[in-house]
Amino acid sequence: MTTSAVARTLDFDSCYRAVSSRDARFDGQFFVAVRTTGIYCRPSCPAQTPRPQNVHFVLTAAAAQQQGFRACRRCAPDAVPGSPRWNCGADMSSRAMRMIADGAVERMGVDGLADHLGYTARHLNRVLTAELGAGPLALARAHRAGTARVLIQRTTMSMADIAFASGFQSVRQFNDTIRDIFGLTPSRLRALGSPVRDAVPAALGEVTLRLAHRSPLHLGWLRWFLTAHAVDGVEAVESTDARGGWRHRQAVELPHGPALVTVEPSASRVDVRIAHLDMRDLGVAVNRVRRLLDLDADPVSTDSALAADPALAALVHAAPGLRVPGTMSPAQTLIATMVGQQISVKAARHHLARLTDELGGRAQWDPPTDDVVGATPADGWRLFPSPEAIAEHGHRVLRGPRRRVDAIVSAASAVASGHIDLHPGRSSDDLRSELLALPGVGPWTADYVSMRVTGDPDIMLEHDLVVRGAAADLGLDLASAQAAWSPWRSYASMHLWRHRLSVSEPILGDQTTAPSHADHDRSTKTHFTRAPTP
């Protein structure tokens, strides 16, 4: 390797064993640069394993590209799950990677990214180059290239439109980058076709794609969680077949306008359809879907670590592949969580529906009910109210004790003014501290919102009533037991949560015995549980 810091973070022998066994669990966690061919691959590439003296390993695709390697056409290394490494740290590199994946460089430039992280652009570039093998511009370029490849192979857009939609400043820059990374012209890359060769050409403003994830994936947990936290008119979870298939749909505000995002998870992949999309937001939308479903997690490593504790072994065995759901809209998550405090699920739904009806904008899509997948809400899709709208009009719309209403409006004002910056690049500790400083926000709310917004895998929801109940059922003292679960305490919290709720929610039962479609219908009708309040 050209950078000693990178070499110290990857053990050659361990990486080479993963490559020799074509272990797909490591796809996205590092990349293989082959000197004799000048290409870089994912660890599970089906090509003949190169000799050890001919390879070295890098943490990011951008590092391989910086060193002059092009992407392997056979294994498509840009189409792999992201590395869970970036969610595990509060260090600058991890936080920067989360923001770059969310399109921060395209929206605010390197200076803006550095400012959000609290450093100078020069220091940011120096640290990322030393630790990851590439600076912020190169890392963003790799993301743009991945977005461009999807648009080239999954849409009929012109190459000029793709160039600007992907974030490139010129068609020439786009052409040069595609040739450098893929070894092909954009036209030739389109001629080769998509890995999904039976894909239907997308309509204007629409993209359909498949996202990879690491197996196993607990589908029942994701379905229950998304259903329990859906805001009427903004989100919907629907059954797709009698075998338990389902889809989640959400109207979400993106940097350049709203879009309707539909996800259909399965054991092997997640099918995604994004409609009414400004194509400049494709990379951001895909990143937020991945964060919502925690698709970059390494469930085998997490489950193995937690199962090593006899107290959790049975829970992990019953629900392998449990994820920590994130959010596509951090502000919505904060406001919805605060609205749901100290009141029943039915009341929370009523208040959120009223808030959305009064202050949320109606999606101005033409026509508004042209969805070919799933049903459209009777009144059309709505967007969750902006923090600015809630800060200005919340007192008029919200009902309940004055103190609670004041707290919600205060939180919205803090987000609207930028006093609290809700984005995945935040350190969970810093965000938690800022949330706790708000009136009406206690430890449970701060922990829960920080976990979902930042994706931190090591937050113990020790103030959660359901988690506490599960611990009591198992005879656990959370204060002493949780140390053994670090750095995966967020996942431990989800296992305890699921274990306690599985008594009344059949869909959350033992994953080794798949629940029927009828079980899920009975579950959501009889006990519609929401995150408990402190």
Strands in their spatial order, largest beta sheet: 5-9-8-7-6
Q: So how many helices?
A: 24
Q: Report the structural category.
A: alpha+beta
- Number of E strands: 9
| Biggest pleated sheet | 5 strands, antiparallel
**Rg, please?**
23 Å
Extract low-pLDDT stretches: 1-8, 195-200, 368-372, 513-534
Q: What global shape is seen? A: globular
Strand content: 5-15%
Give the rounded overall mean pLDDT: 87
Euclidean distance between termini CA atoms: 50 Å
Question: Helix coverage percent of residues?
Answer: 40-55%
Briefly summarize what is shown.
Helix content is 47%, strand content 9%.
Task: Reconstruct the topology from this structure.
Blueprint: H1 4-9, H2 12-20, E1 31-34, E2 39-41, E3 55-58, H3 61-66, E4 70-71, H4 92-101, H5 104-117, H6 121-132, H7 136-154, H8 159-165, H9 171-182, H10 186-192, E5 207-211, H11 219-228, E6 235-239, E7 246-254, E8 257-265, E9 270-275, H12 282-293, H13 299-307, H14 310-318, H15 330-339, H16 345-359, H17 387-397, H18 402-416, H19 428-436, H20 443-454, H21 465-473, H22 478-481, H23 489-501, H24 517-526
Parallel strand pairs: 2-4
Antiparallel strand pairs: 1-2, 1-3, 5-9, 6-7, 7-8, 8-9
Helix pairs in contact: 4-5, 4-7, 7-9, 8-9, 15-18, 15-20, 16-17, 17-18, 19-20, 21-23
